[in-house]
């Protein structure tokens, strides 16, 4: 387990979320969503909060919302679909 994953799991538990929130095959990282990600498309965003460059994972509907918003305000698209070789 990476240093990032260890810290993220500890923070999730402390904040009362599923331990694997935002992790691969865990739960969507958006606090208002928390959809299970196992067996579903994974979209990732760089974690700019911890400066580890780690990937935070989101479900497809949340990623679509982020992307719509990014396009609306003309900002760079933040979410990328995870591919098997990533
Ligand atoms: Zn979601």
Keywords:
86 residues, 2 helices, 3 strands, globular, binds zinc ion
Topology readout:
Layout: H1 3-14, E1 43-46, E2 55-58, H2 60-73, E3 80-81
Antiparallel strand pairs: 1-2, 1-3
The protein binds zinc ion (ZN).
Bound molecules: zinc ion
Number of strands: 3
Beta fraction of the residues?
Answer: 5-15%
Q: What is the SS-derived class? A: alpha+beta
Overall body shape: globular
Calculate Rg over CA atoms. Answer: 13 Å
Low-pLDDT sequence parts: none
Order of strands across the biggest sheet?
Answer: 2-1-3
Largest sheet: 3 strands, antiparallel
Q: DSSP helix count? A: 2
Instruction: Indicate the percent of residues in helices.
Output: 25-40%
How many structural domains does the protein architecture include? Answer: 1
Give the overall average pLDDT.
93
Amino-to-carboxy terminus distance: 17 Å
Q: Order of helices and strands, N to C?
A: HEEHE
